[in-house]
Amino acid sequence: MTQLRAILDGPPRRWQRAAFIKGKKRTLRSARTARQHVQAVVGIAMMRARLPAWEAGVPLSVEIEAVFKRPKTSKHLDRTDPGRQWYPQVPDLDNVSKLWLDACNGLLWHDDAQVVRLAITKVFAAEGEAPHTLFRCEPHTQETAA
Q: Which CATH class is domain 4-145?
């Protein structure tokens, strides 16, 4: 089975809504940059895996794991546990996933409507672990349905 795996180093980014300035819709520069970074990482992963874009109509399964920097102090963090812990803060899961799904349109797949299974996780990094976003995508089969 062909699986694409891509890692974007640095703090996980989120999709940002376009702003209206003087009556015109404008995409924020930071949103364009985040999208370009995702497209570059996915494009490199596709070349390394020698994987072409999936054709329209192929159902896909996507997993996104957003690993955020472990803070020195936080009311959401159990300091006695050095491993990963849930990240119950902003950005919202849907905004993290939207950046990746929209950035892959026309690159990895025809349209993000092909994604029939989406699993997203937000966690604080384990001690010594750097923040990053892990992206996995593969054709959806009955084995991946469970």
A: alpha beta
